[in-house]
């Protein structure tokens, strides 16, 4: 009896060959893509797209002062040293010792030694894709956790970038 009960639950060949009735999908005829482009595109147009880079806008700097995150400066500002855009920061805390040098006018050369392979990789990628030179040396308590080293390297790189940017003359936003 038990065997026949199991067999009655299994599908037979005739039930497998019967077509199942599937729900019919509804198709909407609304246009998801506009039929007309409102912005000129120089690729599809014979009229070139001209941009005015001479427009000046005044903005208030949003960055924090260099000493606000506990880092000390070791070089002069870009204004005093001429046209080179180089920033150098050393950050020493209870947990870490970080040294960062950045050259914004470099070629994308990276030299990172933090003791954290993924952080080294990300710093290398940042430098190569940003086309600036980045030199980072960091030691920290990575035997406990790499959080402090990650955090202090990020703060030092940001501070060095802030220093290297200087007064930001000649930098235009993409519009």
Topology, element by element:
Elements: H1 2-9, H2 13-17, E1 72-73, E2 86-92, E3 96-103, E4 110-113, H3 117-130, E5 133-140, H4 147-165
Parallel strand pairs: 4-5
Antiparallel strand pairs: 1-2, 2-3, 3-5
What does this structure look like?
By secondary structure, this protein is an alpha+beta fold. The protein has a domain at 70-165: Imidazole glycerol phosphate dehydratase, domain 1 (Ribosomal Protein S5, domain 2, 2-Layer Sandwich), CATH 3.30.230.40. The protein is built from four helices and five strands, in the order H-H-E-E-E-E-H-E-H. It has helices spanning 2-9, 13-17, 117-130, 147-165; strands spanning 72-73, 86-92, 96-103, 110-113, 133-140. A five-stranded mixed β-sheet has the order 1-2-3-5-4, with helices on one face. Strand 4, helix 3 (117-130) and strand 5 form a beta-alpha-beta unit. The model is unreliable at 49-63 and 74-81 (pLDDT under 50). Its EC number is 4.2.1.19. It catalyses: D-erythro-1-(imidazol-4-yl)glycerol 3-phosphate = 3-(imidazol-4-yl)-2-oxopropyl phosphate + H2O. Residues 1-28, 63-84 are annotated as: Disordered.
The general outline is: flat
SS-derived structural category: alpha+beta
CATH architecture descriptor name of the domain at 70-165: 2-Layer Sandwich
Any idea of the CATH topology of the domain at 70-165? Ribosomal Protein S5, domain 2
Instruction: Please provide the count of β strands.
Output: 5
First-to-last CA distance: 79 Å
Q: Can you count the helices? A: 4
Helical content class: 25-40%
What is the top-level CATH class of the domain at 70-165? Alpha Beta
| Low-pLDDT segments, ≥5 res | 49-63, 74-81
CATH level 4 superfamily of the domain at 70-165: Imidazole glycerol phosphate dehydratase, domain 1
Kindly state the mean pLDDT as a whole number?
74
Helix and strand run: HHEEEEHEH
User: Rg to the nearest angstrom?
Assistant: 30 Å
**How many strands, which pairing sense, and closed or not: the largest β-sheet?**
5 strands, mixed
């Amino acid at each position: 009896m038990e065997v026949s009960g199991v067999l009655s639950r299994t599908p037979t060949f005739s039930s497998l060959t019967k077509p199942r009735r599937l729900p019919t999908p509804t198709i909407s005829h609304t246009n998801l893509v506009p039929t007309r482009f409102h912005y000129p595109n120089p690729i599809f147009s014979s009229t070139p797209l001209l941009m005015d880079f001479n427009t000046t806008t005044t903005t208030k700097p949003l960055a924090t002062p260099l000493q606000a995150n506990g880092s000390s400066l070791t070089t002069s500002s870009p204004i005093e040293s001429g046209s080179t855009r180089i920033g150098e920061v050393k950050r020493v805390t209870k947990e870490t010792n970080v040294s960062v040098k950045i050259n914004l006018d470099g070629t994308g050369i990276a030299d990172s030694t933090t003791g954290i392979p993924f952080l080294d990789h990300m710093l290398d990628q940042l430098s190569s894709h940003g086309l600036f030179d980045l030199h980072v040396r960091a030691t920290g308590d990575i035997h406990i956790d790499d959080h402090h080293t990650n955090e202090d390297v990020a703060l030092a790189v940001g501070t060095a970038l802030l220093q290297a940017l200087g007064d930001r003359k000649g930098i235009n936003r993409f519009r």
